[in-house]
Amino acid sequence: MRITFLGHAGLLVEGGGRRVVIDPFLTGNPKAAMKPENVKADAVVLTHGHGDHIGDALAIANANDCPIIAVVELAGYFGRKGAKKTIGMNTGGSFETNGIRVKFTQAFHSSSVQDGDQLFYAGQPQGVLLTLGGQTLYHAGDTALFSDMKMIGERHKIDVQALPIGDFYTMGPDDALDAAAWIGAKHVIPIHYNTFPGIAQDGAAFAANLEEIGLKGHPLEPGQSVEI
Ligand code: NI
Ligand code: MN
What pLDDT is attached to residue 33? Predict the structure, then answer.
């Protein structure tokens, strides 16, 4: 599995001959690694409806003629906005399409879509277990630390975990360190930090703390990849 950090919470995940983009926020992201028109994907997976996660989802999905996979209310929103294909799931559900397996897990956050001066209910925020080619990535979405992360780690074979460390809107690095230990996947990619001054964190220090508990941190710059 090859994971490319697109900036903020965006990941391009490649494995088993499939390419999946999670939470593409490129337009208007000062740290974006790619232009949305250059993203090739077989599916777009969204954790929740906030603008820093859904930004370029519709354009990428329709340009690639691929589905947006999201919680049912958010998938419905994109269907009304002109997405050609949507798959609306809900927490705890799993689905496989075209060699792409997605399972949604709980996340503790909020979720809505801001569309001009209107605010749409976007369902519950989600974490994502994405399996490609027999390997599984857990993208925690925007979330606080919660003790059922232990259960998620015990009940799934997770190869790599992407955890928010920015603080303020999500877990900060101290809580994320406990999350990483509870989930237990060896490889850890910090996300949702350093995009804006309010979520500035030290990715290298986080990785050093992971090493002390036997895990491997990958604080990627936007555009960098890691092979797991
Ligand atoms: Ni959010
Ligand atoms: Mn966010």
Answer: 87
Cα-to-centroid distance, 174 and ligand 1 (Å) = 19
Question: In which element (H, E) is residue 7 found?
Answer: strand 2-7
Distance between CA atoms of 136 and 9, rounded to whole angstroms? Answer: 17
pLDDT per position as a tens digit, 111-156? 999 999 999 999 999 999 999 999 999 999 999 999 999 999 999 9
pLDDT per position as a tens digit, 86-116: 999 999 999 999 999 999 999 999 999 999 9
Is the pTM above the cut of 0.90? yes
d(CA 34, CA 22): 14
Cα–ligand 2 centroid distance for 95 (angstroms): 24
Q: How many angstroms does the Cα of residue 171 sit away from the middle of ligand 2?
A: 11
* pLDDT of amino acid 154: 98
Q: Is the pLDDT of residue 47 over 90?
A: yes
Question: What is the residue-wise DSSP string for 151-197?
Answer: HHHHHS--SEEEEE---SSS--HHHHHHHHHHH--SEEEEES-SSSG
Query: Which ligand is the nearest neighbour of the Cα of 167?
Result: 2
Give the CA angle between residues 181, 185, 186 to the nearest 5°: 95
Burial grade of 91 (CB within 10 A; 0-12, 13-18, 19 or more): middle
